[in-house]
Amino acid sequence: MRQKMISNEINLLRDTFQRLIRRKANTNLGKLIDKTHPADLALLFRFFNEIEQNKLFSIMKPNDHTGEFLGELDLSLIHISEPTRPRLISYAVFCLK
Questions:
Q1: Integer Cα distance of 15 and 17 in angstroms
Q2: What is the pLDDT of residue 69?
Q3: I need a labelling partner for 37 at 20 to 30 A (CA). Which of 15, 31, 83, 88 fits?
Q4: How far apart are CA 66 and CA 4, in angstroms?
Q5: Please, which residues have CB within 8 angstroms of residue 81's CB and are 6 or more apart in sequence?
Q6: What is the pLDDT of residue 62?
Q7: Close Cβ partners of 70 (under 8 Å, ≥ 6 residues apart)
């Protein structure tokens, strides 16, 4: 019973995210991203196509939840690449495949 309830909540969240993406409601998407638990957001990413994933990833603001979200993501969804321009500080850029 509990798993079915969680499944319904994830489906509702997925549908809400997809509707906001279609409407290009970036402000509302940003607010929803901030309010969604990083583990739930990582789970949702499995259901989004590459365009939707890139859209959400570009809207995310770096904060404490971003690290948690990246930690929860399936490794198959993450591609790590070096920056195109050299910088004094070395870092990796996380890009969705």
A1: 5
A2: 84
A3: 83
A4: 27
A5: 92, 93, 95
A6: 84
A7: 78, 94
Map tokens 């995310």 to a residue: 60
| pLDDT by 10-residue block (mean), the chain, 97 residues | 69 94 95 91 88 89 82 63 45 45
**CA geometry: angle 75, 79, 80, nearest 5 deg:** 110
Q: Please tell me the distance from the alpha carbon of residue 30 to that of residue 11, in angstroms, as a whole number.
A: 19
Here the tokens at position 30 are 């940003």
Closest listed residue to residue 28, CA positions, set 37, 38, 19, 39: 19
- Residue positions counted in the chain: 97
